[in-house]
Amino acid sequence: MTDIDLARIAGGTVTLHDARRKVRWDVELEPYELGVYAVTEEQLAELLGESARHPRRPAVDVSWLRAVRFCNAASEWEGLDPAYTFEGEDVTWHVDADGYRLPTEAEWEHACRAGSTGPHYGPLAEVAWTSADGLTAPAEVGGRLPNLNGLFDTLGNVWEWCWDLLDPARYADYRVFRGGGFADDAWSVRASTRRGGPPRSHHDDVGFRVARGGFDAEGAAQGWSARADAERADPDGPLPLGWTPLR
């Protein structure tokens, strides 16, 4: 399989925001690795034994479930411990595994920002493909300037799946994707913007990039925990206008 280029991301602190609960909190991160580029059509096709029509474009129309299965397949290809086990469509992340995985939201935002505090890590026209470029499909990876972590296209071009649940009290098993895509305007192409979809859903502007890094823990790592997911699934406090929890 074509090598997956990874950048070493130093540990640090990132501030996350839950708009529904109107809360912000800081996450302390240990060092980890993240793909320099989104996974390409070529990399996905090679694992499937297929040919890619556009080898250097990000792979899109990839569901969250397919993305985590790609991570395991890439780990097995390289002799690494797979990060995930499956029971039907229920996925467990073994946080001590050294194999490929999806980044947590905290990791993704920390790596995307690369020390910046504004919505973008550089002038948007120089770092991201957006609706202003008039594209009808993703551009090839690496065509715009990288951020200070050496990562390309974390903003724009394609949204990227993360490990985390979007808002389990309202959206059940929806998973987060981040970063904005080629058809989005500047308001959506920001380091803090959160969207998501069901784990089986796929879209022509959603792809993913892989992470690596194992941690001495169980059920919690890098800003995510199974316990917090369970707590977030139980709505409390005043609800926004028009918001209804799952029944």
Automatic annotation (TrEMBL):
SUPFAM superfamilies: C-type lectin-like (SSF56436). This is SUMF1/EgtB/PvdO family nonheme iron enzyme. It holds the Pfam family FGE-sulfatase. Residues 49-212 form the Sulfatase-modifying factor enzyme-like domain. InterPro entries: CTDL_fold (IPR016187), Sulfatase_Mod_Factor_Kinase (IPR051043), SUMF_dom (IPR005532), SUMF_sf (IPR042095). Residues 220-247 are annotated as: Disordered.
